[in-house]
Design a protein that fits this description.
- The modification N6-(pyridoxal phosphate)lysine is found at residue 199.
- It is a single chain.
- By secondary structure, this protein is of the alpha/beta class.
- The protein has two domains: 2-6 and 249-335, Aspartate Aminotransferase, domain 1; 14-246, Type I PLP-dependent aspartate aminotransferase-like (Major domain) (Aspartate Aminotransferase, domain 2, 3-Layer(aba) Sandwich).
- It is built from 14 helices and 13 strands.
- The chain has helices at residues 14-22, 34-47, 58-69, 83-86, 91-96, 112-118, 148-160, 172-179, 183-187, 213-225, 234-244, 250-264, 291-300, 323-336, and strands at 2-3, 51-55, 75-79, 99-103, 129-135, 165-168, 192-196, 207-211, 271-272, 279-283, 303-304, 306-307, 312-316.
- The strands form three sheets. A seven-stranded mixed sheet has the order 2-8-7-6-5-3-4, with helices on both faces. Strands 9-10-13-12 form a four-stranded antiparallel sheet.
- α6 (112-118) runs parallel beside α7 (148-160).
- It is globular, with a radius of gyration of 20 Å.
- Bound molecules: pyridoxal-5'-phosphate.
Length: 337
């Protein structure tokens, strides 16, 4: 089986399993797990923020950020196709009593004019805007690597109106790799950033939420509130430290995605979006089949992908598939389509 459903399917390698087995541990709710403490320090350094918090999932990281940055009843600005809007169960409403104002954007990032226009000041009738949430890379739009200047322009517009900015950077290291910029260039203009250790970086579990000391202190309380306070979490933070060493490997995933996209675009009825990172989107409407039927045919050939909308299929490269696997997957699909 060649599993291209997601970069979350990576399994821990020997270094990670070793790190789990040998991690120094303590009770992290008491702040006494040295491995978690090291991971939080190293993660903060990696993105150039004052502090960071280890959280069980990217979703929890985004939800904590929204809760910490806002007051009950405020609005959040977010792209219509962002993960926080589409795939987090409407959590902003459930966990922070927020209303989302969705923006129709180019490449998933609003212009400063859009931010300005959509921001509302609190008055008798309006709740006030409490947060701008950006995403990089942009998952649902095909793993787009958003330029730091675009992030900075949107963030500056929000901050001029005293609206804080959170970046859903689940794959922010993929963005930095693709754009060949330090990740801090992307993250400097925002107040907080979440990134996943458990995706392309290959850790079994966990994400990081980074920002100012003050933000992280409050985020730590909110993590406890959400039931995310963990005890001897060094067992999973150890592999997380190994994952931070894997940033340089992401370029290979991107190269494999380009190879995959080239091959897929040769298939009858596949309209393939040029990949910028490790995600390849194919519109399969011209095959005469819907996305689910295409996936079923892929599965029969031992290739797995996911449906992204009725006629769009997503393929995702990662460290557990190499160039040879991609070539083999393409050979199988050429025989099928
Ligand atoms: C995967 C993902 C998340 C959530 O991460 P989980 O660890 O799966 O909860 C958030 N945002 C984006 C853009 C993602 O791709």
């Amino acid at each position: 089986m060649i599993d291209l459903r997601s970069d979350t399917v990576t399994t821990p390698d020997d270094d990670m399993r070793n790190a789990a087995a040998t991690a120094d541990v303590g009770d992290d709710v008491y702040g006494e797990d040295p491995t978690v403490n090291e991971l939080e320090t190293r993660a903060a350094e990696a993105v150039g923020k004052e502090a960071a918090l280890y959280v069980p999932s990217g979703t929890m990281g985004n939800q904590i950020a929204a809760r910490v940055h806002t007051d009950r009843g405020q609005e959040v600005l977010a792209d219509r196709k962002s993960h926080v809007v589409k795939y987090e169960l409407g959590g902003f409403a459930q966990h922070a009593d927020l209303q989302v104002r969705m923006l129709e954007t180019d490449r998933g990032v609003p212009t400063p004019e859009q931010v300005d226009e959509a921001t509302v000041a609190e008055d008798l009738h309006r709740p006030g805007t409490g947060l701008l949430c950006l995403e990089n890379t942009h998952n649902a739009r095909g793993g787009l690597a958003i330029d730091p200047e675009k992030i900075a322009a949107a963030a500056d517009a929000a901050r001029e109106r005293d609206v804080p900015v959170h970046l859903d950077g689940a794959r922010v290291f993929n963005a930095a790799t693709a754009l060949d910029v330090p990740v801090s260039d992307i993250v400097d203009p925002v107040d907080s950033v979440m990134f996943c250790l458990s995706k392309g970086l290959g850790a079994p579990i966990g994400s990081m939420l980074a920002g100012s000391e003050e933000f992280v202190e409050e985020a730590r309380r909110t993590r406890k509130l959400f039931g995310g306070g963990m005890r001897q979490a060094g067992i999973v933070a150890g592999p997380g430290l190994e994952a931070l060493e894997n940033v340089d490997d992401l370029a290979a995933d991107h190269e494999n995605a380009r190879l995959l996209a080239d091959g897929l675009s040769e298939l009858e009825g596949f309209d393939v979006q040029e990949p910028e990172t490790n995600i390849v989107l194919a519109d399969v409407s011209e095959t005469g089949l819907d996305g689910e039927a295409v996936l079923e045919r892929c599965r029969e050939r031992d290739v797995l992908a996911t449906a992204f909308g009725p006629t769009t299929v997503r393929f995702c490269t990662h460290r557990d598939v190499d160039r040879e696997n991609v070539e083999r997957a393409l050979e199988r699909l050429v025989a099928e389509f």
